[in-house]
Amino acid sequence: AQVVQAEFIKSSVRTEDCPSDGLPEFALVGRSNVGKSSLLNSLVRRKKLALTSKKPGKTQCINHFKVNDSWYLVDLPGYGYASAPQELRTDWNKFTKDYFLNRSTLVSVFLLIDASIPAKKIDLEYASWLGQNQVPMTLIFTKCDKRKKKRNGGKRPEENVNEFQELIRGFFETAPPWIMTSGVTNQGRDEMLLHMAQLRNY
Ligand code: GTP
Ligand code: MG
Q1: What is the number of other CB atoms lying within 10 angstroms of the CB of residue 11?
Q2: Structural domain contains residue 61
Q3: Which of 4, 81, 93, 182 has its CA 20 to 30 A from that of 29?
Q4: Residue 99 falls within a domain, yes or no?
Q5: Of the residues 28, 33, 74, 96, which should be mutated to test ligand 1's pocket, given the most ligand atoms within 8 Å of the CB?
Q6: pLDDT tens digits, residue range 130-166?
Q7: 183 in ligand 1 pocket by Cβ < 6 Å?
């Protein structure tokens, strides 16, 4: 299940504008700085695929990357910018919600969670919304290479991962699948590719 080819296709602001070829897709979403672009680049083994399409002022877009000519990785706008007012941080874009609820080719949303820090309220809210709306989701823990630091409460990534799953348990009928990753060591890359291949073949 390796990536042999990947290319940027288009940026869309509405679900209706997304590619209409019916290929299955997986959407990456998470707080700003969680490591979305790094993970995408790690998955496709390209240093700058996600960055090359990132234009200033285009952060509000749904970005489609076609892989092996047969499925899509979708980069969504990050949420929770530390400098934004609270209402803006929680009221994430209407079109992102619309995309989650109405994109028929969306196989699973990959919710990225930083495993190097304790659970954030905004991430729990996001997981809760996805669970309540029964959007298929996979938890992707990022930065699992980061070791314990005093300033993040002295927790190891494994402990943060367990705590996060404990905190979201009530939001889901069955616990979502989860994968530990690192864009630095490429931990979890093969597991993610295999997971996506399995989901596509259902
Ligand atoms: P925005 O596009 O601003 O929303 O951020 P993003 O989610 O795309 O995060 P990005 O990939 O740009 O990474 C943010 C920072 O975290 C950068 O300084 C990365 O080098 C660092 N980073 C990303 N992934 C990892 C990881 O797996 N391990 C470590 N140690 N650092 C990482
Ligand atoms: Mg990015």
Answers
A1: 17
A2: yes
A3: 4
A4: yes
A5: 33
A6: 999 999 999 999 999 997 666 656 789 999 999 999 9
A7: yes
The domain total for the chain is 1
Indicate which residue's Cα is closest to atom 26 of ligand 1: 143
Residues 6 or more apart in contact with residue 173 via CB below 8 angstroms: none
Contact 99, 75 (CB under 8 A): no
Q: Tell me the three state secondary structure of residue 113.
A: strand
Spacing, Cα 201 to ligand 1 middle (Å): 30
pTM: 0.90
What's the CA gap between 87 and 8, in Å, rounded?
32
Residue 84 lies in a domain: yes
Contacts of 128 by beta carbon, 8 Å cutoff, 6+ apart: 168, 171
- Please identify every residue whose CB atom is under 5 Å from ligand 2, which is an ion: 36-37
Pocket lining: 54 vs ligand 1, CB cutoff 6 Å:
no
Asked if residue 1 belongs to a domain, the reply is no
